[in-house]
Amino acid sequence: MRNPPRRRRVHRVVLAAGSLTLAVATLSGCSAAPVPTETAVPVPSETAKPTDSPPVFASNDEALAAAKAAYTKYLSLGDSAGATDSDSWKEYLALTTGTEHDGAAQAGKLMKEKGWSFTGVTLFDSMTIQSSRALPDSTWEIRTYLCLDLSASDTVNESGDSVVKHDEPRSPMIVVFVTPDKNSRQLLISESPIWSGSNFCS
After folding, report:
1. pLDDT band for position 31 (cuts 50, 70, 90)
2. How far is C-alpha 113 from the chain's CA centre?
3. Secondary structure of residue 200 in the 3-state scheme
């Protein structure tokens, strides 16, 4: 049985659990991070220009390409990760930090306890940059908006029955990436709350 971690699974689990609707999403960090209260469609902001060191990503286009690659890998590893004590699960968790890491670990534990398993693939589209900037410690942060697509995936119980709702297969997300070290170009997912404003994915 595969234990799906990720926001997507988590989302799926969330949907099922009471709205386990983004159930896992909430567990994997979506709920751990503050949820924005804006109601309008998000508007990208200009990239901040650090003053003490050259930018890790010279433009929003470059930052967006890096974020897309990192998130694609994240979802792929999450879809194929094995049990929570497996190397594949550890490799998946290594792509996360902060609340995302804590949430993914909780989601994996929940999946195991419930006897749930993940099937299919998780997709995303419409990623845009909200901001890309150097942080005070000289690491880099990229904040994005995207649509998480769960239409080709499911979370099922031991009997093979779905444990999530399917009325909203595409969910608007805020996904935040950070670099682990100064001048590093590696991106880790630090949080991915569900966008609480108007659904720009519908």
Report:
1. very low
2. 22
3. coil
Tell me whether residue 129 is exposed, middle or buried, using C-beta atoms within 10 angstroms of its C-beta: 0 to 12, 13 to 18, 19 or more.
buried
Q: Give the whole-angstrom CA distance, residue 174 versus residue 160.
A: 31
Q: Are 83 and 1 contacting, i.e. CB atoms less than 8 angstroms apart? A: yes
Q: What's the CA gap between 151 and 85, in Å, rounded? A: 28
Rounded to whole angstroms, how far apart are CA atoms 5 and 7?
A: 7
Residue that is written with structure tokens 């998946």 in the block: 92
Question: Over the stretch 151-166, which tens digit does the pLDDT of each residue have?
Answer: 899 889 999 999 887 6
Which two three-digit tokens encode residue 102? Answer: 């804590």
Structural domains in the chain, sorted by start: 7-191 (3.10.450)
- Nearest by Cα to 59 from 51, 43, 48: 48
Q: Comparing C-alpha atoms, which of 129, 109, 119 is closest to residue 175?
A: 129
Q: Return the SS3 of 191.
A: strand
More confident residue, 170 or 10: 170
- The residues, any chain, with a CB within 8 Å of residue 54's CB and separated by 6 or more, are none
Average pLDDT over residues 106-123: 90
The whole model's pTM is what?
0.77
pLDDT at 46: 53
Both structure tokens of 81: 């990760």
